[in-house]
Every structure is written in C-alpha cells, then in structure tokens.
Amino acid sequence: MKLHHTAYAFIPALALCLSTVSLPTASASFGTGIGVSFPASGRHSSEIVPSYAAFSFDQVVEELTVEEKHGRLIMELKVTNDGDVPYSVSHRDGQVYDFAILDKNGKTLYRWSDGMAFTQALTSSSVDAHKSEVYTAELDRKKYRELKEDAVLVTAWLVDTPYKLTTRMPTKVGSSTPVTLHGGIIIGNGPWYDD
User: Across all residues in the chain, what is the average pLDDT?
Assistant: First the structure.
C-alpha cells in the first residue's frame, strides 16, 4: 500500500497600499501559498500533486488550486470573505473571473474566456460576509494533452481587480523526488501575458 501526504501552507508576507481607478485604496497583506509534497512510500511509483497558491487582503482570501484528475486539468479559484460586510467588485461587462495557462516565456497557451460572449452591460459580483464563492474551469483530456508539454504556470483572477494569483502546473512526485515546493502570486494592473 502506498501512502502520499500533501500539506499546504499559507505564509503571510508584506503589507502594502494598493489603489486602482475602480477600487478604493485598501491596506493589503499578501503572501504565497506554497504546496509541499512529501512522498511517504519507498516504492518507485509517482503521483501528480496539485498546485496551490493563496493570498489575503483586507478580510478577503483568494486561493488557487490546480489539479490533474483522470487526464483532465481542473482549475479552481476560491474567494472567501472573512469580513462582516459583503465584498463587491464592479465589472465592465458580464465576465466575473478568468484563468490562463502560460508557457515558460509568459505566452498564453489557453485562456478560459477566449471565444466566450459576455453581456456588455456593467455588472457586479459579491461574496457575502463569512461566505465563499468558487469559480472553476476545466480542460478536457484532448485539450490538456495538446498543451501539457509547454504549460508552466496557471493564473486566475477576478476581473476588474488588481490581484492575480499564479501557481505552477501540477507536479509529478515520486520516490526520487522527496520534496516539491510551488506557488506564487502576481499583484498589479500591468500586462503579465501576451495578447
């Protein structure tokens, strides 16, 4: 019987002041979520370990989990509001969130919203106090197989916010790979991918 254990840790880091045109000035602390994988078996088997990253600002925590399941790639952005009032975001159109998969040079290999149509009306989204919202995207086996060799990073974000969460693609871990660390974030409004 083989046993593998995966532990995830959230490490708070710095405090900054962030401001954008669409959001009020906010005091924020942020950190990276680091996925740590410890194989507990001495066998020569391997396992695909999910990737994870997280950060917090004000009373909001955003978490990105990326995992391979049955040959498919599952991406999940979880937004948790630990505050006492709703966390609301105004959007330029009907799109609330997005995911992108990038290669080692930052070239976009896949973007969840490509080819989708969203209402062009101004909209908003919110997460109620002490609640979470989960946004997901999935690549089927065929599409995942096409880009798997070149894919390096996955990025997720709520549209019209300055916060972008980034982590590595899921990692294969075996008995010859005792520990794997992965995770990261991007904060800012600048371009981080090619268009």
Answer: 75
pLDDT beyond 70 at 11: no
What does the alpha-carbon distance between residue 80 and residue 124 come to, in Å, rounded to a whole number?
17
The predicted structure's pLDDT at residue 190: 46
> Does residue 192 have a pLDDT over 90?
no
CA–CA distance, 157 with 62 (Å, rounded to integer):
9
Q: Which pTM was predicted? A: 0.68
pLDDT at residue 183 greater than cutoff 60: no
How far apart CA 195 and CA 17 sit, in angstroms, is 28
> Partners of 53 in the beta sheet?
64
Residue 188 contacts residue 55 (beta carbons within 8 Å): no
Q: What is the 3-state secondary structure (H, E, C) of the chain?
A: CCCEEEEEEECCCEEEEECCCCCCCEEEEECCEEEEEEECCCCCCEEEECEEEEEEECCEEEEEEEEEECCEEEEEEEEEECCCCCEEEEECCCCCEEEEEECCCCCEEEECCCCCCCCCCCEEEEECCCEEEEEEEEECHHHHHHHCCCCCEEEEEECCCCEEEEEECCEEEECCCCCEEECEEEECCCCCCCC
